[in-house]
Amino acid sequence: MSGADTQVQSRRSGLTRRQKRALSRGVQYAVFIAAVAVLAATADWARLKNQFAQWDLVQQMFPDVITLALKNTVLYTMSGFVFGLVLGMIIALMRLSPVGPYRWLAGIYIEIFRGLPALLIFVFVGVAVPLAFPGTEIPGGTYGKVALALGLVSAAYMAETIRAGIQAVPKGQMEAARSLGFSHARAMVSIVVPQAFRIVIPPLTNELVLLFKDSSLVLFLGVTLEERELTKFGRDLASQTANSTPILVAGLCYLLVTVPLGFVVRRLEAKAGEATR
């Protein structure tokens, strides 16, 4: 159908394309508002309030939910992120190495740890390692175990992200550095890798958000009262009180961190997009 025919049909209908799009959006908003209104009208708010909004339980959780549970969650996340970043950098360089066995080992590692659920990695670290190496203690106790488990999982994803960032740096950067007398290793460390990290900061920040949520799996390692993170803390109190308010509060504490981090990711992605224009 030609453009002239489309314009004729639009005129006959009495609406322009912009008006049709506005009408379509209006209908979608109306349907959404109607659905929310129906759900709000049919929900049993009294039972929801009784199960999820007991103010006395909320007061009972403070300040431990912040000074203990949230603090431990942040520590677990940061330790796993740092270990995963270092290991991921090594694996990414192995993946790009001209030495065949290095590339094969890195590829096998990435496929295995990217394919396994994080829960199985926690079970492996908490159960299989002590059985395989009797008498061997992972440095740092529970914090060391969590850093190892989260790091092993995140390193596989970070390695691919860093590798893509390195390959995104123009080859002329390496050639220019070599022409100035830099060795390959020094040019990689001083020129290529810093530029690659500027490219991959947004996805790495997104990985930090995912790790923050995955830290809830620490409960499968068996932690003491002082080592509990948000999910374990909320779950224990919910079991004691037979009420779900502590779980809701723990979820809100996760959002206190993940929502600002998500905003940071979007800002970094926007800046990266502007830099490439």
Automatic annotation (TrEMBL):
<dbReference type="Pfam" id="PF00528">
    <property type="entry name" value="BPD_transp_1"/>
</dbReference>
<feature type="transmembrane region" description="Helical">
    <location>
        <begin position="115"/>
        <end position="134"/>
    </location>
</feature>
<dbReference type="InterPro" id="IPR000515">
    <property type="entry name" value="MetI-like"/>
</dbReference>
<feature type="transmembrane region" description="Helical">
    <location>
        <begin position="74"/>
        <end position="94"/>
    </location>
</feature>
<keyword id="KW-0029">Amino-acid transport</keyword>
<keyword id="KW-0812">Transmembrane</keyword>
<keyword id="KW-0813">Transport</keyword>
<keyword id="KW-1133">Transmembrane helix</keyword>
<feature type="domain" description="ABC transmembrane type-1">
    <location>
        <begin position="70"/>
        <end position="265"/>
    </location>
</feature>
<dbReference type="InterPro" id="IPR043429">
    <property type="entry name" value="ArtM/GltK/GlnP/TcyL/YhdX-like"/>
</dbReference>
<comment type="similarity">
    <text>Belongs to the binding-protein-dependent transport system permease family. HisMQ subfamily.</text>
</comment>
<keyword id="KW-0472">Membrane</keyword>
<feature type="transmembrane region" description="Helical">
    <location>
        <begin position="247"/>
        <end position="265"/>
    </location>
</feature>
<dbReference type="InterPro" id="IPR010065">
    <property type="entry name" value="AA_ABC_transptr_permease_3TM"/>
</dbReference>
<feature type="transmembrane region" description="Helical">
    <location>
        <begin position="27"/>
        <end position="46"/>
    </location>
</feature>
<protein>
    <submittedName>
        <fullName>Amino acid ABC transporter permease</fullName>
    </submittedName>
</protein>
<dbReference type="InterPro" id="IPR035906">
    <property type="entry name" value="MetI-like_sf"/>
</dbReference>
<keyword id="KW-1003">Cell membrane</keyword>
